[in-house]
Amino acid sequence: MRSVWALAATAALSLLAFSTITLAGEPKQGGILRMYHRDSPGNASIHEGATYSINVPFMPVFNNLVIYKQEVAQNSMDTIVPELAESWAWAGDNKTLTFKLRQGVKWHDGKPFTSADVKCTFDMLMGKSQQKFRQNPRKTWYEQVNDVTTSGDFEVSFNLKRPQPSLLALLASGYTPVYPCHVSPGEMRTHPIGTGPFRFVEFKANESIKLVRNPDYWRKGRPYLDGIEFTIIPNRSTAILAFVAGKFDMTFPTHITIPLLKDVKSQSPNAVCRVEPTNVSTNIIVNSSAPPFDNIDIRRAMAMALDRKAFVSILFEGQADIGGTMLPPPQGLWGMPKDPLESIPGYGPDVNASREEARKLMQKAGYGPDKHLAVKVATRNLAEYRDPAVILIDQLKSIYIDGELDVVETANWFPKVARKDYMLGLNLTGNAVDDPDQSFYENYSCGSERNYTNYCNKEIEKLFDVQSQETDLNKRKKLVWDIDKKLQEDVARPIIFHARAGTCWHPYVKGVTVMSNSSYNGYRYEDVWMDK
Asked: Rounded CA gap, 6 and 521, in Å?
């Protein structure tokens, strides 16, 4: 299968294990795959989105230049395969990446795909074109790209300022589809046109999203399905009951919590379910540019008050992972080992001692038993966000912080935090690939649109560049661990835990692959088929 979710989220959340069902018999043509969707995306433009709520329904419309090979358990540079590109090669001291493009590919409106489309897509992402995205959350991915040049209709080159080996990994993410040059960004928000296995039919906000088979898909014989229909049901319990009752063929990817998985299996014992890490961290975002969280003592106290094991026990029955910015090992290739992780204030095993130190910091800042700090804790109106936010509010009481939950709808959440219109927030950060360049530059570099906390440390940012250019894997890992440790000590975006979640489908749905490395790997359902 060309790609995957794990949440994938999304997406996509990227390097972990996956599970697949062995096909029984020959694939059959036909059928509509019915899924529920966890909420209503703000629009249909993947490049303007920061949630796998957009990726899951709309990646089947598109293709990338390259994509991760889905049969391999753990994504790596060695598992990247061609898609709209037929081949690629590095040249010029590893500062030029050239792609030979597939010929004969058509956009869904019949126009031919050429190198001009690739250039237009990345010029917009780099902010170099007249047409602009309203939001551009991954612009930092391409800061090392000087320009994108074409040579004829079927060759395109990325010319870099310096070597960046991870560029190929970023291009393989489900957040990196190629857009058509002849369609405006505004049109892509409401009626996306791609080259992928499915064509867009309609998107009714808060109701449904419908896709239909692309009969002219360049990968002959695919997709098997006649279409995919998503019904938007924000209430997770209602959606799961509908799945159990047979109204849906499949759940929303990685939407089933560990406790709810037991309910699904008890009511639908034949359902096929897989639990995987999602490469999505649950974290705290703080507006450090405004009082009271411009005070580093308050930020540190808050991080030291966390009982991470309590979150994991309550929400996941122990089946989640504690780590820093990068996905914890062994699923993640870049996460800190146990010893350096537990040396960070707030990560040690003695929660009571950590909270005592946190109370001293709060008293230093002017708060105490007789003077509490009242804050609103903003979070997105999804159970995955609300549930840990409630636990966070309870834990902050131990250090004189009284939190009030402020629930925000999905369409407003990312614009709200991007413009820093909040004090304190409970956030989920999905990593599109398990590579430090994606996580560090996107979430922690000065001025990045997804740097919701206004964190800016130029010295650490220099280290981002050092690790980015390192080709020795072991040397790069040590650099990454040092950076991750500094980010946690700076309380840049305190990581609470890395989630695991389940995906379920009825046994007549065949060819499903669930990868645990990313919610955002562009799962396109082109190899899925129905045996009923």
From this structure: 8
DSSP conformation class of 391? H
CATH of 59-187, one of 3.40.50.10170, 3.30.1360.120, 3.90.76.10, 3.40.50.300: 3.90.76.10
User: Amino acid identity, residue 481?
Assistant: W
Residues 359/399, Cβ–Cβ less than 8 Å: yes
Cα–Cα distance between 167 and 163 in angstroms, integer? 9
SS3 of residue 427 by DSSP: strand
The tokens of 443 are what? 């979430």
pLDDT tens digit sequence for 140-164: 999 999 999 999 999 999 999 999 9
Beta bridge partners of 198: 213
Q: What is the Cα–Cα distance from 333 to 459, expressed in whole angstroms?
A: 24
Local confidence band at 112 (pLDDT 50, 70, 90 cut-offs): very high
Query: What is the mean predicted confidence (pLDDT) over 253-268?
Result: 91
Q: Is 204 exposed, middle or buried (0-12, 13-18, 19+ CB in 10 A)?
A: exposed
278-499 classified as CATH 3.40.50.300:
no
Q: Report d(CA 40, CA 72) in Å as an integer.
A: 32
Burial of 370 per CB tally in 10 Å (0-12, 13-18, 19+): exposed
Please, what is the angle between helix 236-244 and helix 258-267, to 10°? 30
pLDDT at 6 > cutoff 80: no
276: alpha, beta or left, given left = phi > 0 and alpha = psi -120 to 50?
Answer: beta
Same fold, 59-187 and 278-499: no
**Percent share of the chain, pLDDT over 90:** 79
Q: Give the model's confidence band at 79: pLDDT under 50 very low, under 70 low, under 90 confident, else very high.
A: confident
- What is the widest separation between alpha-carbon atoms in the chain? 72
> Which of 306, 303, 292 is closest to 365 using CA atoms?
292
Residue 322 CA to residue 497 CA, distance in Å, equals: 5
pTM of the model: 0.84
**More confident position, 6 or 73:** 73
For the chain, the structural domain boundaries read 59-187, 278-499
Q: Band of the pLDDT at 24, cuts 50, 70, 90?
A: low
Kindly state the average pLDDT of the residues 353-359. Answer: 98
Residue 368 β-bridge partners: 371
